[in-house]
Amino acid sequence: MKKTQFYILFLGLLCGLPTLAQNDTINVLNEVFLTDTKLKDFSTGQQVTVLNDSVLKKNGALLTSALNFNTNIYFKENGLGMVSSPSFRGTTASQTAVLWNGININSQFNGQTDFNTLNAAGYDNISVRGGGGSVVYGTGAIGGTVHLNTNLDFSGSTKQDIFLQYGSFNTLDARYKIKTSGKNWSVSVALARNSSDNDYEWPFEGRINKNGEFYNNNLTIGLAYRLNEKNTLKFYSEVFDGERHFSLIRPSETRTKYRDLNTRNLLEWVSEFGSFISVARLAHLDENYRYYENIASENYSFGEAKTLIGKYDLKYSVSKTLEFNTVLTNNYTDGEGSGIEENIRNIFSAALLMKHKPFQKFQYELGIRKEATDNYESPILFSAGLNYEFTDFYNLKMNVSRNFRIPTYNDLYWAGAGNLNLKPETSNQVELGNHFKYQDLIFSLTGYYIQIDDMIRWLPSENAVWRPRNEEKVETYGLEILTNWQKRLSKDHQISTSGTYAYTVSENMSAGYQLIYVPFHKATGAFTYSFKNLSLDYQLLYNGEVFTRSDNNSRYNLDSYSVSNLGIAYDFGKDNTYKIGARVLNIFNEEYQSVENRWMPGRNFNIYLNLNL
């Protein structure tokens, strides 16, 4: 087994020259589009994949769909629109960090982000970075990070975008975005409404998805004002209000529902003086949920956490090739809920980062981070990465890091079961990436290895009460491939294709079993053909078989599945100011589920109108 891991890790490096003729990465865009400066400046040795607005519109309103069809992240979805949990590089849902304009927004209660509570319409692009990131982004950044970005500029232009889509199961997706700016000011506003009866048929005669209706509303605001040439103020705000009736497995079950109200506000002051750039940030996050065990009753359980984050970032450029960064952060959280008495958690952290480019084709970075809190003992974290551009055709990347995930409110404070002696989960990991570019073709092959210690698991204690303990050691390793190719065949004809593939092994080191809901294989593909104003596009998602029992009893496995989508669109107007289109989702009517007994829709349809003013 150890020999297998060794070969997996270094296969990326050894395969360099034999793969000259293969494809490349999906939507790896120019980094100038990224709003999170740390993502741009300190991702040496790692790959950042960006999904822009046009890609996001090809998928459902909620972020699960876009990431599922365009990245290597595997999603467990309890039915369409229901709770959605990621597994990135074989890690758990709480080991993927989600950053909103650079601020970690994972739940204080369970450490996760439900990707069906994120409406894609609120963001200008979504960035995905595989591998560790705790030195820069803190807790949960073990498998990878997902970045939700809002862009602000001073271009002096005004743009409006209206997107209306209606489809099967009475599903509505309505989005409106306006961006306007002057020489010294900028405004971005995005509104979205997504709702559905969600009453699709199950693959059993006479069964439909009962109690599956949902709706959500989303408002995102970005403001910027340039005080002078050296100082700029920015403000970001987001409100998500949603309600979901949780789908029933059996018709006799009691109908339930869940309400989310999440607000996020961020004030930022950017100042430049000499060789220094100072960024002061103050963020307030409010996480609020209510769970109704019986929708006929007004009784509910709840949780609310208010988090205040102060962050100071100072960058010093010694020269054009050498820079240092210090980041000081203080997180203050006041949380309470049903089963959790009010508790306050205060965490201070300090990080030091360095990036150096001693030669034109060689760049490396180093980072170290330490936290201080009374709630747990924090480890010292580190990271190191390098990029070496051997030729215009081939680029080698390498990254090593130590990362962590802190115990959540549920882990520490759950009444009668919380464990105040928990330690953070820690991971040590390494990855090697090979990146090729030849004319219109891009291809990357990455091998990685992660060892996770002190994995927190809820297990029965001596008195039969389930309590969290630092119990497991897990290792995960694998290969990732990202490809992209675009070609203008003539003035009127253009084609583009992209794809991803992930081979993932994620094992409990004591028992040697694959973790549940982690497929060995996942692949995605996309193809677009354009002729003048007409375009056709095709999407493919393949997920391999997964275990649903910790002892890997194959009797209960979920089968592999392939889902295909097909779309057609036509651009009208001299400057393509409006577009109409239609899509067929799951065109081959695949019967599939990503969580046991939680069936997904068969073949379904939608039509849409997109106006750009």
Question: Would you kindly provide a written description of the structure presented here, covering whatever features stand out?
Answer:
- With 613 residues, the chain is mainly β.
- It contains six helices and 31 strands.
- It is globular, with a radius of gyration of 24 Å.
- This is TonB-dependent receptor.
- One of its GO terms (cellular component) is cell outer membrane.
- Residues 167-587 form the TonB-dependent receptor-like beta-barrel domain.
How many domains? The number is: 1
Oligomer category: single chain
- According to CATH, the homologous superfamily is TonB-dependent receptor, beta-barrel domain
- The CATH class is identified as Mainly Beta
| Uncertain runs | 1-34
List the helices and strands and how they pair.
Elements: H1 2-14, H2 37-41, E1 48-52, H3 53-57, H4 63-70, E2 74-77, E3 84-87, E4 96-100, E5 103-104, E6 125-130, H5 134-137, E7 144-149, E8 158-167, E9 171-181, E10 185-196, E11 214-228, E12 231-246, E13 256-273, E14 276-292, E15 301-317, E16 322-337, E17 340-359, E18 362-372, E19 381-389, E20 394-405, H6 409-413, E21 425-438, E22 441-460, E23 466-488, E24 493-508, E25 521-531, E26 534-543, E27 561-572, E28 578-585, E29 593-595, E30 598-599, E31 604-612
